[in-house]
Amino acid sequence: MTDGAPERHPRILVIDDEEQIRRALKSVLQARHYEVDTASTAEDGIALTAERTPDLVILDLTLPGMSGFEACRQLRGWYEGPVLVLSVLSSDSDKIDALDLGADDYLTKPFSTGELLARIRALLRRASPSASPVTDIDVGDLHIDFARRVVMLRGESVRLTRIEFDILALLARNAGRVVTSSMLLEEVWGPEYVRDTQTLRVHISHLRKKIETPGDVPRFVLTEPGVGFRFADLEA
Amino acid sequence: MPLRRARPLTRLGPVQECYARHMMWRQQLSRGGGYPLAVGAVGIAALIFFPLRGVVSAPVVMLFFVPIIVAVARIAGTKPSATAAALAFLFLDLLYIPPYYRLTIASLPEWIGLMVFLVVALISGQQTGRLREREQAALRRQAELELLNRLTFRIASEYSLAATAEYVTGQLTVVGNARRVALYRPDGAGNARCVNSSGESEPATEEARFAEWVLTNDKAVGPEGPSAEPGEPRVVTVSQADALPGVTADAVYLPLQTVDGLEGVLVAQPVSPSGFGADESRLLISVANLTAAAFERERLADEAAHSQALRETDRMKTTLVSSVSHELKTPLAAATARVTGLVEEGSACDEARVRSELEAVSEDLARLDSSIGDLLDLSRLESDAWRPRLVAEDVSDILGTALSRLPRLHAARIRFDLSPDLPPVSADFAQLARAFVNLMENALAYAPADSSVLVSARSEDGAVRVVVEDRGPGVPDAEKARVFEKFFRGSASSSAPAGTGLGLAIATEIVRSHHGTLVVEDADPVGARFVMTLPTAGADSD
Known about the structure:
The complex is a heterodimer of chains A (236) and B (542). Chain A is an alpha/beta fold. Chain A has helices at residues 19-31, 42-52, 68-78, 92-100, 113-127, 162-173, 181-188, 197-211, and strands at 11-15, 35-39, 56-60, 83-87, 105-108, 136-139, 142-145, 150-153, 156-158, 178-180, 221-224, 228-231. A 5-stranded mixed beta sheet of chain B has the order 8-10-11-13-12. In chain B, strands 2-1-6-5 form a 4-stranded antiparallel beta sheet. Chain B has a two-stranded parallel ribbon with strand order 3-4. In chain B, strand 1 and strand 2 form a beta hairpin. At the A-B interface, strand 11 of A face helix 11, strand 8 and helix 13 of B.
């Protein structure tokens, strides 16, 4: 927070039909100084979003009446903030569907509070309008300078191809957030490539060879099976 | 859902193959009842001989016409050949033998010759036609026998109901002179469901209604009522008009009867407008009976397998419920006790105590959650609902994702030693990650709290060997096999945090579905070493 400016606590809206989850999330989030509104149906949630303009919406997918998927689609029409989807559905296709409908990340119930807070922080960090665009980041031994398109590993410069750098940049700017394969393909190559996941995997594997430690598991670029990739969280 | 490969079409036997080809070829040539062929053949011959009028004598031309008429008989039957004979006679009389354009003939010898030609042509056509019919009947009889033989064989062997249905419809359209054949089965809700159909024509809109009527009334339905001629097989016992008044369709509906009841309905639509002949009807009845028997056998086999599976599931459930209720209730009871204790003490307890109690509760809940997850996974794996989708994957990539699923403090205790150029293995990413998580958690649970767990991977011929090694108490020889069983908790588990005893069982199931192996050895100097081998992508015979 910049000093001098009045501190504004981010406002989070929780849409979940289970009373227990709403209460638990409310107390956990309020303890971390978030303002919290809750709604028990998709319809109420959409109305509250319009009324209160929360900084982030936490949306359960299995709701009575209008489904979470439908709510997600409608919110994306006009709501600018990030949407974090909660689901008990651990199947890949549901995650993909929700992300394709515009959700920004997902958590599978049950989740730990630490995991939830990390996701919320990652989403808010990226969405905050006051934040100046990130020019460079440091994760462990890795230093990425977006402006000069330079990547340093343990002080040594790493030579990446244009495509490898673009992939790394997109993932790193969304650190801690899942980035679907189709998002990556669309951003790096263009919309006509959204089906060519094989090419993407080849480039990811080249990128890993250059920045990850040989003999160890990948630490920076992690695979989210069936969905996409996630860059290690900055606050790890 | 993986794409199902299209099944090959129904295979025909050699005789049926020959019969089908024969029929196709004949159908092509005898379109329009064979009359166009008769007119065409005689017409072409006439065009060839006409310019030779007055050069080649009439008897020579007559000699040429006889084989043409015989060929027409061979291909299209007796009536077209009689037509061809008549046309040839007219051509010779009117256009070839003077006086032209009149039926009268100048010289008596030529008149007699022409008459002899007509008689010879007609008789040889008739003979050849009859021969052809007998030949066809023999071929058909052979094809029918082959069909019945194969159906009988099917009754005694393991075939799926759908495959038999496909076979029957495919064969009957070829052998039984049917334009369309369909098989219906009762779906349990009183409706008839089409299992398979073949042939060229679309189902009549009323087909399902008639099939349902037959299922309810157990009587065969056809365009006309019972065939009354003595000695004829009685296919149809009820006319369509009586079954469903005002509804007409030209197909025959036969109930598939067995001793115990009805197995379905056979629908056959004849090619010829006059309906099925006596031979075809006899064949239909035999096929219907055999199909009924095959269907019954397959249904009973299915039911037997199903009830066997149910009994097995029941036994599993009993084991599950007893061990699970314990596994789920223990942490829940512990957490409840701690929380209610805190609530009762109210403000009397200090902050440090609240914190330590809450940490304990959170551990209880974590255990509860992992138990529920384990049970769900195991039931999905065992019911095959979680079939692996095997594609080429990178082991170190999967290990990385597995590591990120562990709590940070635990993840920090794991060391990796992966050989740099591991070939890809054929794996289902999410499932294999789960197996790795379980192996790592198991190792972390048994190893001393400050020790690290080593995960290494090497390539050996046609496989990748992943080893998870801890410095815990190890697994005694007597337990080395049992440690992978469901709910088995080794003698060392008293020192370890409680688990469901399902983690290794799940890992084993997953590795098995990946065509790999998982065993435990003694580590050097102490500890357990879990060794997993996975076939490299493209190396397994799948």
